[in-house]
Amino acid sequence: MAIAIGAEHRELAGTTRTFLNDQGARAANRALLEADEETLPAFWADFAGLGLLGVHLPEEHGGGGAGLPELVVVVEELGRALAPGPMVPTMAASAVVAARGTDEQRARLLPGLAAGRTVAALGVGGAVAVVGGKATGDAGVVLGAGLAGLLVLPAGDDMIVVRATRRASASRCRRTSTRPAVRPGSPSTAPR
Fold first, then answer.
1. Contacts for 148 with CB less than 8 Å, ≥ 6 apart
2. pTM of the full predicted structure?
3. What is the tens place of the pLDDT at every residue in 80-110?
4. What is the pLDDT of residue 5?
5. Which residues of the chain have a pLDDT value below 70?
6. Whole-angstrom distance between the N-terminal and C-terminal Cα of the chain?
7. Which domains does the chain have, with CATH numbers?
8. Which residues contact 125 (CB under 8 A, 6 or more apart)?
């Protein structure tokens, strides 16, 4: 059953579906299964350029000014196309920052997330603690961490934002581990 319930939603779904089909998203996913390294999909910049990464974000931070229903329409089409890449984790992480971040965090982080300049990942478990302004522990499962430059992780009753570090470049990452350890650092925190 399609999630698009109104004419604008159906139009957004159609635009997203056509774009992903024209970009060969399904074939790109198959190719990724055989690849030695994970890279951003070739259509990442164009996807962001259409405003799809930030459709749900406030306009003052580079987003489309829509809401979560429109985000869900785009995510449904990504799933339908079996599109590769960290689009869903980036959009989910940006939704958390938009909803729970401070004004400073929103102003600093959301424009890059909406424009695709920043790839984000979202933690869904783990045991991260913030003590004395430093985050330490095991981040658990972090969706999209392989290519992310920004991690949004649960830490107790808060969500923290941590810049990701890795040996690979920002546009590619060798497949090694899907459970990044959070190294001691100064996270930004946002209450859940």
1. 86, 89, 90, 119, 120, 121, 142, 164
2. 0.85
3. 999 999 999 999 999 999 999 999 999 999 9
4. 82
5. 1-4, 166-192
6. 31
7. 7-191 (1.10.540.10)
8. 140, 141, 154
